[in-house]
Amino acid sequence: MSHPIVKSKSLKHTINTNLRMVALALLFALLIRSFAFQPFSIPSGSMLPTLLVGDYLFVAKYAYGFSRHSLPFSPNIFKGRLFAGDIKRGDVAVFKLPADGHTDYIKRVIGLPGDEIQLINGHVHINGRPVQRDLLPPPPNAPSPLAKYYRETLPNGAHYVTWDLGHKEQADNTRLYHVPMGHYFMMGDNRDNSLDSRFLDAVGYVPYENFIGRAFVKFYSFDDKTSFWEIWKWPTAIRWSRLFAAIE
Length: 248
Fold this sequence. Notes:
Blueprint lengths: L2 H33 L1 E5 L13 E6 L31 E5 L7 E8 L4 E5 L2 E4 L2 E2 L1 E5 L11 E6 L5 E6 L4 H4 L4 E2 L4 E5 L18 E2 L3 E11 L12 H4 L7 E2 L2
Antiparallel strand pairs: 1-2, 2-14, 3-4, 3-14, 4-12, 5-6, 5-11, 6-7, 8-9, 9-10, 12-13, 14-15
């Protein structure tokens, strides 16, 4: 008659052990996501040609230190940053939209605190000097024959490729922006199709506290014309050349 009691205690012990393991695994995943690496996907073309729709990337949360936005749901439990790190000109960074403090944006750091930024005929000027810009031949798989590709080189030597679709007065010829202290000026590499710091009412200057981390590697990339459930298309839908490619 004692066997059912033994089995019941054994089953209860197994369940409790499994629940503890699940809880520890979830806690470990939360710690990794909050303080080490967090995956993000690219839903729009504002960072073309650097990032494509369907790219999946890792963001280094520790690169700039930690703020309340490092945690899920951005709880208002402290202000500023812990273990603060430098944000460098040219970094591709994820941040919370200043207007709501919740929407994730990814852009490139163009202006640092105290900088003066202006676009003249699509050409970025930093502190009164034009950024070095070299016209490149279009790649074989260029998505638009009208697009012009430029390699921009910032004053600190950071370089990357931008995409220009043609003249857009509001985006190509701007006012002179004075980046406030403690804030940064962000722009998308797709210069004619990016809602960024040029539009002060929509994005504007990004506070240091709002940064989540620096994007540094693409770990997966999937053709945006293929649905994830279309398994039979995976071999051709995966962009193999972009897997584990560094982000510059």
